[in-house]
Write a structure and sequence with these properties.
Strand content: 35-45%
Shape: globular
CATH topology: Jelly Rolls
Largest sheet: 9 strands, antiparallel
Number of strands: 17
Helix content: 10-25%
Number of helices: 2
Length: 316
């Protein structure tokens, strides 16, 4: 009898547990149905639910080394330019100061190109042997005297100078030159000179440089910007953007006169110092074709100029 009672109690307990489980499941299903349908809760209130976002993460990419692209080489926007910041840019470096006759030196200093002459009646010429444009061109140079007191000392800018095809002959012959002469601290002169085989000829007479266009500064040592505009028929001369000359002179076309350079000289004094900067050569119309060759430093020294005949006299 006791056994049957225990069995009956176990059956009742099991049934109660089963019924409770079914009620819990039913409650969960009802709750889920309410979430899906927005069922009304007690007293007609709408059930509120908290939604949690689904977060999806991508794996961190493995970094890769992207090669730096090689920069594209650019060509200069002009035919030729030198500001002398590079002492190996292609102008001669020569020291001849240990020689009593023809004593001079050309050198780079303070990002300028300079010349010192320490002998009288000496003229020196230099060039990187860069060819001028074949069409109309402009040649610009900043220049100044560096010594106050060198009477009839001078510097010059050479153009249309000969590139002699014979290696036994010197270059820079048969040239034209813008020639600037020291008369005194406040009096400098200029003219255009033409070199022909065996002699030099005046293209213009000596002309004054008024302070209204020319920078004298203290002791006549200030910088000036010179510009030569060369066409097939004319030579135009500018100083500090002021036109001071317009000369009718055909450009040589058959004598290989394609070079430019710099010049300096003394007369009856053995001290001359000048400086040059910002040498620019370009096509006059702006249609530049850059020269991409290698400069060849070249210099000459001597007393080949007939200075006695070329320097100012009465009437200049």
């Amino acid at each position: 009898m006791k056994t049957n009672e225990r069995k009956t109690k176990k059956a009742m307990l099991f049934g109660g547990l089963l019924l409770g489980s079914l009620l819990v499941v039913a409650a969960l299903i009802g709750a889920m149905t309410g979430m899906a349908t927005g069922a009304q809760g007690p007293a007609g209130a709408t059930s509120e639910f908290t939604y949690f976002p689904i977060i999806h993460t991508e794996p961190t990419p493995t970094p890769t080394n992207t090669p730096t692209p090689t920069p594209t080489a650019t060509t200069p926007p002009f035919h030729y330019f030198d500001d002398f910041t590079d002492p190996g840019s292609g102008w001669p470096i020569v020291d001849n100061t240990h020689v009593s006759n023809d004593c001079f030196k050309w050198f780079y200093e303070d990002e300028n190109y300079k010349v010192d002459i320490c002998d009288d009646r000496t003229d020196v010429k230099v060039s990187p042997l860069v060819p001028l444009p074949t069409g109309d061109y402009t040649l610009e140079v900043d220049a100044h005297f560096r010594y106050d007191g060198g009477w009839w000392t001078s510097y010059g800018i050479m153009f249309d100078a000969k590139d002699d095809p014979d290696p036994n002959n010197s270059d820079l012959g048969d040239y034209y030159m813008l020639w600037i002469l020291w008369q005194g601290s406040g009096e400098h002169l200029w003219k255009i000179l033409k070199d022909v085989p065996g002699a030099q000829q005046d293209v213009t007479p000596w002309q004054p440089l008024p302070a209204s266009v020319y920078n004298y500064g203290t002791g006549g040592l200030d910088w000036n910007n010179w510009r030569i505009e060369r066409t097939s028929t004319h030579i135009r001369v500018f100083v500090n953007d002021h036109q001071i000359g317009n000369i009718s002179e055909p450009r040589p076309t058959t004598n290989n006169q394609i070079l430019f350079g710099l010049y300096a000289s003394t007369y009856e004094t053995n001290v001359m110092q000048a400086g040059y900067d910002n040498v620019l050569v370009d096509y006059l119309n702006g249609a530049s074709q850059p020269w991409l060759g290698t400069p060849q430093p070249y210099y000459e020294v001597g007393d080949g100029m007939e200075l006695d005949a070329l320097l100012p006299r009465d009437g200049r």
